[in-house]
What we know:
Low-confidence stretches: 1-44
CATH topology of the largest domain: D-Maltodextrin-Binding Protein, domain 2
CATH architecture of the largest domain: 3-Layer(aba) Sandwich
GO molecular function: maltose binding
Number of domains: 2
CATH class of the largest domain: Alpha Beta
Signal peptide: 1-20
Strand content: 5-15%
Organism: Caproicibacter fermentans
Mean pLDDT: 88
Region (Disordered): 27-54
Shape: globular
Oligomer: single chain
Keywords: Signal, Transport
Structural class: alpha/beta
Number of helices: 18
Distance between the termini: 51 Å
Amino acid sequence: MKLKKILAVTLCLSVAFPLAACKSNVPADTSRSEASGGTASESGEAPAPEKGATLTFRTGGVDSDLAWGKAVAEKFKEKYGVSVTVQKGTEDNLKKAKLEAVAKSGADVFMLAHDLSYQAIVQGILLPFDNSIVQGMKDAVSPVALKTVTKDGKVYGAPVSVETSVLFYNKKLVKTPATTFEEIFQKAKTYNDAKQNKFWFLFNANEGSPLYPLLSTYGYNLFGADGTDENKPNFDTPEFLKGLQVIQKFHELMPMKAVDSSNTDFLNKQFTSGKAGYIMSGPWDVKTYEKANVDFGVIPIPTYDGKQPKVFSYIQNAHVASYTKYPKAAQLFAQFLVSNESAELLYSKAAKITARKDVSKVSGLSTDPISGAILEAFQKSAPMPSVKRISYFWTVIGEIGPEVFDEKLSPEDAQKKAVSEWNSLIQTES
């Protein structure tokens, strides 16, 4: 199946990304945008940028994101005459945006994963987009992705890319890629040499996102089947307990401390130097492997015990800060980030996949086997819940997951601790 056909299927999946109402922690500053004509326009035409406008754009946290950001900023300047300073972001983009919202100074446009987009929207630090900008995005962008930035009929961002986790394999070491984790376990028994930092399989066992596929193996669903019931983390279910047992088992596959596995530079170096057969990662690392001249392939996450683990899928969104001095220019730039021109740069510079409905005009993307494999994995993924209490899940799993992996905590005790920690977090809401 050609990639563009796969994308048409994956981006039209009927999934829910609810944006429930919540008390705002930071009051939105819309006075400047209203005075500048940055609020909803009925003209149907995108507003021209303000005279003398300059912008600052904060990308995602990897080098390829920065390369894409700089390239697309140049294209935007050619088209609109607006200079854009580009900064490399970090995993703390939301935290930084909150501080900047209080100071009313910082990046005009910044990137966030869609679960963080939800938090930013309800905290009132984002500017709602002009109706004409929204209409243009509705025509171009996946409706599934657009839901992640929509609340009460208003749109607060531009969906830029879709992502999910996959397994990369080194073709020099792996002649036929595994279809089951049992095959990977079997090879690891004779290949692994912890003293030499040789591991057949690598992944980050210290964070919730890469641990979720293991938790989901036997049917665990965070916040229910559709991920919308934030009152039910389902930590007290037998499926969650069995998922914790899988995490414990995977220490045999990768016998190192969980905290050491969180060093992505180390993991990538082991893979690119030919010391590892497989690594769990995503499109954000494709350029790293290409630059290292690794002959690699991509497969979806294999089965374990005959079960198909679920991985989270993510939408990376571009947002406009509520305090921006140039709301028209900032919205135009955010919209430009989902244009076909940007999609081509996103693919060529960052090896990422656009959230646009149609990729047929994105040069190279529709015939790329790596992107095709990632989209195949996207089809099998579960959208990361976009609810307020997703942050509680990350807190709980980020604490108990590594302890179970390191065999410091039994799955049974970890389950009890998860329930207790969750209840404690709920109490903080009152």
